[in-house]
């Protein structure tokens, strides 16, 4: 005699049944926060909260005639999150009049005269099989730069692409040509620029060092340039 119970237990369909009701989940797979900015205008400026974060505007935004540039990137299926990490893009994106045009434009790579679009973001490898040169688009110069030999060098402080041998000087807060060996900024020989609140003090100290012992009457001659000594 087969025990009835066993038969019941193994009845097909009783186990692994789809739940009638979705059990209330404690943890939702938290969806990415919907973008939202406080703009009442067209989001064309870098003050737009969405654009600042590298997001296209969403339903929660109250903007009118939105021209958030990330909306355009999205139309081009560009990864906005990745794009927003590119300082060169971020420092330019709100200034570019015709972003669509930029993205559609073709550029001839200097290595093989092959044309590429602003495939973005990141480094583009020349499509020529035998070449493989790497190029990176500079939004500042609107051109591709040779990433291997003369890598793009965007300064996030000056907000501009400079020569690949340029370096930013903390002291004068400017980029200067540092060469491949990385020599010091020529500003070390010049009086420090007033910067923040300490500027005038720094300048005074510098003047004291350089003109110490100098008769202040003699300073009023015409050579007010750097021709001291
Ligand atoms: Zn906005
Ligand atoms: Zn928005
Ligand atoms: Zn908007
Ligand atoms: Zn090539
Ligand atoms: Zn740049
Ligand atoms: Zn300097
Ligand atoms: Zn700089």
From TrEMBL:
InterPro entries for this protein: Tesmin/TSO1-like_CXC (IPR033467)
Organism superkingdom: Eukaryota
Region (Disordered): 1-36
Tesmin/TSO1-like CXC domain ranges (all copies): 32-72
Entries under SMART domains matching the protein: CXC (SM01114)
Protein name: Uncharacterized protein LOC118421787
Organism: Branchiostoma floridae
């Amino acid at each position: 005699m087969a025990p009835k119970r066993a038969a019941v237990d193994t009845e097909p369909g009783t186990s692994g049944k789809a739940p009638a009701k979705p059990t209330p989940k404690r943890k939702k797979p938290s969806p990415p926060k919907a973008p939202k900015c406080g703009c009442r205008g067209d989001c064309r400026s870098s003050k737009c909260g969405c654009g600042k974060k590298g997001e296209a505007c969403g339903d929660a935004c109250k903007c009118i005639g939105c021209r958030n540039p990330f909306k355009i990137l999205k139309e081009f299926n560009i990864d906005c999150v990745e794009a927003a990490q590119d300082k060169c893009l971020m420092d330019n994106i709100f200034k570019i009049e015709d972003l669509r045009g930029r993205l559609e434009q073709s550029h001839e790579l200097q290595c093989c005269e092959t044309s590429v679009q602003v495939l973005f973001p990141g480094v583009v490898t020349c499509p020529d099989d035998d070449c493989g040169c790497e190029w990176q688009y500079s939004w500042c110069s609107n051109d591709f730069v040779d990433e291997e030999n003369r890598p793009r060098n965007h300064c996030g402080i000056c907000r501009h692409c400079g020569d690949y041998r340029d370096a930013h000087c903390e002291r004068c807060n400017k980029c200067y040509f540092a060469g491949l060996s990385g020599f010091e900024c020529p500003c070390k020989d010049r009086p420090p620029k007033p910067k923040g609140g300490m500027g005038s003090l720094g300048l005074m100290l510098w003047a004291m060092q350089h003109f110490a012992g100098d008769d202040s009457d003699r300073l009023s001659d015409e050579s007010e340039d750097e021709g001291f000594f």
